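Supplementary Text 2. Reproducibility record for the structural model of the 259-residue chain.

All settings were left at their defaults, and a single model was retained for analysis rather than an ensemble. We include the record here because the model underlies the residue-level annotations in Supplementary Table 4.
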Amino acid sequence: MIAPSVFRLPSSRSPLAAEAAAGAVYPPAPLPARSPGGPGPSADGGGAAPPLVLRVLNVVEEADAAAVLAPGVLDATEQKRAADFRREEHRRGYVAAHVALRFLLGARLGLAPGAVRLTRETCPTCGELHGRPAVVGGGVHFSLSHSGALALIAMAPVTVGADVEETPSREVADQTARMLHPDEAAELAALPDAERAMAFGRAWVRKEAYLKALGTGLSRSLALDYVGTGPTPPPGPRGWALTDVRVPQGYLAAVAVRV
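Retained model, structure tokens:
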């Protein structure tokens, strides 16, 4: 399991916030592109193969700062998506997560947050342009996941998928377990009731991270790929490394990285 670093947006009263909204890179020193090293991924890329940067933020705490920054940072598509949310807390969470994503991508690429251009890759399932989100021109792969009060952002020089979810209820686990790989469903059925929800949640975030990395999302059957339900993920599907991510109590998270 790896622990992400916490990311904070500049305060709306900070001069750095005004500078970033005006087109400056934030933080002033770009995040370094990491070099391959040891046997597995780490949250900051040190000794990692492939290198990986993981950041987590509390979107509730960052919502006010993000709201001030958003007009100069988010593109028209993101601003429309934010406006379409009916519930205020969902809109504020979306804005905070996407403003943070742009700050992190901009720092990685040496660009102002608002200068980062985003697109969608081709979906492997249907060929339409709603596959993995990507940076126009490349330079870094990324994945963003948001659930409840948390957002998880992964960046790497190779394809990556991340997922964070609130810990599911036992009812959700029982109702959904049959959709998983047969071996995962069998593992869950053998567990005591008190342990089933957590085990199901582990499998779910691993699977979501992997499917997001593939670019298919849930259009690919949840029964096709085995990611395990135990405290430690098994070796990932061929060509991928799956790792659980340490997040606050009440949440579960995982990341999938192309190897």
